[in-house]
Amino acid sequence: MMRLGLFYIVALCTLFSYELVESKFKPRTTDKDLSNSPHVFEGEHSAAYDHDAFLGRDEAKRFDDLTPEESKRKLGEIVDKIDLNNDGQITSEEMTAWINKVSKKMLLDDVDRAWKDFELQDGDKLSWEKHIDELFGEDGDLEDEDDETKKAYSEKDKRRWIVADADGDGKLSKLEYLAFLHPEHEPKMRDVVIKETMEEVDKNNDSFVDLDEYIKDLWSPNSPNETEPEWVKTEREEFAKRRDINGDGKLDLDEVGKWIVPEDYNHVQAEVTHLFSESDADQDGKLSKSEILIRYDLFVGSQATNFGEILTNHDEL
Questions:
Q1: Structural domain boundaries in the chain
Q2: Which DSSP string corresponds to 18-37?
Q3: Nearest 10 degrees: Cα torsion 45, 49, 55, 58
Q4: Which stretches make up the EF-hand domain (predicted)?
Q5: Phi and psi at residue 18, to the nearest 5°
Q6: Within 13 A of 297's CA, how many CA atoms are on the CB side?
Q7: Among 35, 173, 179, 223, which is 20 to 30 Å from 299 by CA?
Q8: CB–CB of 201/209 below 8 Å?
Q9: pLDDT per residue over 200-219, tens digit each?
């Protein structure tokens, strides 16, 4: 039977958590098409996010085991591939094209793995019955959950399934399943993601997210006496200044949407800007191979977690 743990927990739930010993931080903004790691963790930019965005998820483990010298050598090979006109300089356009390509490959690889586990061929479609059986049937990932939990998951998945099913035949093609699996990446799935988030965060079921619910969604102390970190205090200010647009002390569905899937924010472009700001030493607006290799830790350093096989399957990118 298919093991849906990775797909379901990471892709089918809007909420994903990132836990450290000192506190629990749960990023909410849906930029998971670039990484499963939080873009900003406790107020600091995440190196793991940079690695995921630059390489793809599976390759990080490979780089984790490399020496700095080997990491730099392999990074140099990647830089040569990014440099489309072979002029020895990486422009922001070339970096943007690369990260977009890596992101797309990660998403398609997820679907390919799922199709293989579902024992389907490329042209086959996934039925709702098979999806549910893989979740709740014998050896399914949610087999042991109680009936109420199963009902909640089923209702959420059905709502998502209907929107992803573009031709309305009740089954999902690989492309439609991509929208189902990664709704944060598909504009047509935006309303579904927003509604799921509201249901997840709105604990008192009043159809709003108040400040307390907002903070509890982002951070959970490990003990009642744990001191609130500075970044949480900053988030309280953000709630009042930027999230609560109409100033009524709570977030409605529209405000939740602007929070988790902001329409005026391009995650790829933001990541490119960040990488350039951190590594463009001479500030000429381009990155030389030496500038990138000097900051190899930013691009492929040992803190990375799970990537795609870019170097071994180099013809795919």
A1: 5-316
A2: EE-SS-EE---S--TTT-SS
A3: 150
A4: 70-105, 152-187
A5: -135, 110
A6: 3
A7: 179
A8: yes
A9: 999 999 999 999 999 999 99
